[in-house]
Amino acid sequence: MTDDEPKRSTTPGPLHNTGFRWFFLGRVVSLAGSSMAPVALAFAVLDATHSAGALGLILAARSVPMLLFLLVGGVVADRFSRRTVLLVSNSGAALSQGLAATLFISGNFHLGAIVALEFVNGTLTAFTSPALRGIVPQLVDADQRQRANSLLGSSKNLVSIVGPSVAGGVVVAFGGGWAMGIDAVSYLIAAFCLAKVRMPEQVTKSSQAFFRELRDGWTAFRSMTWVCVVVLAFAATNCIYVGVWSVLGPTIASTSVGAVFWGVVLSARAAGMLVATAAMYRVKRARSLSAGLLCYATGALPMIVLGLHGNAALLTGVAFVAGVGLGIMAITWETSLQDHVPNKMLSRIAAYDDLVSYAAIPIGQLSVAPLAGAFGETQAMVVGGMMFALIATVPIFSRAVRHPQGPVSTSVELR
Questions:
Q1: How far apart are CA 220 and CA 186, in angstroms?
Q2: Is it the case that residue 164 has pLDDT exceeding 70?
Q3: CA torsion, ordered 180, 245, 293, 217, to nearest 10 deg
Q4: Of these four, 130, 267, 318, 399, which has the most CB atoms within 10 Å of its CB?
């Protein structure tokens, strides 16, 4: 190598950090089990009840507390040790899923008991998510955050591709109850791995009341215009995507590309996300939210192509591109939050991010059918894609998005 040639960085990756290595291992195992849970639960309930209504009730029992307690989880994860919060939540999830699996395997299914157990699981998830998003900066240095997020994102995308198929095989061979049992064991292993993590704790031991800390989180969230603008864009695009793509997509695809190719299209999108998150480990540290949002806007392409009855090959290609764009934005967004939000309130900001981003999804799910009935399915799909692209790129025109900063210190007391 000559003196003029660029030197490769010899900085060790995040997996050289023992604490992050244990955390990463536990997270992968937990994700593997969780990726199997939806398939396992669905077939276990249907085998026991033969009722879609019962399944819907159980799924709602899990999703509702996730939203109700998300902000509480953010405050708790900022106020106490995130490692401890994750240890307790994973241990609790292992117990509740293990009890549910036992009921299914033993043939003692009871709807009320399963609803209660899934309510517990949803509540625990509300505490898990904010703690997970706040713990990475405590484990790795600033220059390793993107690589750490890349590893976590890649593992999540990989198991989301493999997990459901494995769950289907376990369900066919042994039954849904045993697949849920595997999920319970995965939580237990994750708790063991977290117990091995050693890191400086962020315990604040704040004397502030709970609602004061919640309000401080909201004040910080509001003071960062770039966060508000992007999160509102996420809320609108999630509403469009879930409503138009997830609800109308299979209907249109059944008459255009067919059910088999629809599965290929969804797999292509997932593969694109996996490729992008893996590539972000190697590329130069991404600091531009504007570039991430432009990549995110490619999510409009599959909707437009499907609405215009494009052929299967073209639809598969643009679905892959959209997956790449989403993967890049996911890592860019997570790293930007970790870079600019004080770690003492990162979990609260993450909780507000999740709550606002996902709150509009039911609106999209409920409103898309009447809109499609009034204007036509393909028209709704094309217009939805165009709106997705527009909303995803509008934040770029905000100076705050182009130059993100932390919360306004004069209005938020960081304790």
A1: 35
A2: yes
A3: -50
A4: 130
> Residues 196, 200, 205, 206: what is their CA dihedral angle, to the nearest 10 degrees?
-130
- Three-state DSSP at 209 gives coil
Sequence-distant (≥ 6) Cβ neighbours of residue 81 within 8 angstroms: 201, 202, 203
In angstroms, how far apart are the furthest CA atoms of the chain?
72
User: How many other C-beta atoms lie within 10 A of the C-beta of residue 368?
Assistant: 23
Q: At what angle do helices 346-359 and 361-375 cross, to 10 degrees?
A: 20
Written as six digits, the tokens of 132 are 């997970």
CB 230 within 8 A of CB 330: no
Query: What are the distances in angstroms from CA 310 to CA 135, 255, 406?
Result: 43, 12, 44
Using alpha carbons, list the distances in angstroms from residue 196 to 17, 24, 137, 190, 347.
12, 11, 18, 10, 22
C-alpha to C-alpha distance for 164 and 162, rounded to whole angstroms: 6
SS3 281: coil
CA distance 55 to 43: 9
223 Cβ contact list (under 8 Å, min separation 6): 407, 408, 411, 412
CA-based nearest residue to 252, from 79, 140, 372? 372
Angle at 93 between CA 91 and CA 96, to 5 degrees: 110
In the block, which residue shows the tokens 């130059």?
Answer: 403
Nearest Cα neighbor of 40 from 126, 109, 101 is 101
Q: Distance (Å, rounded) from C-alpha 35 to C-alpha 270? A: 13
Q: Of 333, 364, 360, whose CA–CA distance to 349 is shortest?
A: 333
Looking at residue 411, what is its pLDDT?
42
Tell me the per-residue pLDDT of 274-328, one tens digit each, with 9 for 90 and over. 999 999 988 876 568 999 999 999 999 999 999 998 888 999 999 999 999 999 9
Q: How far is CA 158 from the centre of its chain?
A: 13
Q: Which two tokens stand for residue 98?
A: 């293990």
pLDDT band at 223, cuts 50/70/90?
Answer: very high
Amino acid (1-letter code) at residue 369: A
Nearest Cα to 70, choosing from 125, 135, 136, 133?
A: 125
CA–CA distance from 315 to each of 76, 234, 261, 408 (Å)?
44, 23, 9, 44
- Which DSSP symbol is given to 394? G
Range with top average pLDDT, 36-40, 125-129, 207-211? 125-129
CA-to-CA separations, 410 to 188, 212, 216, 220, 341, in angstroms, rounded:
43, 16, 12, 10, 15
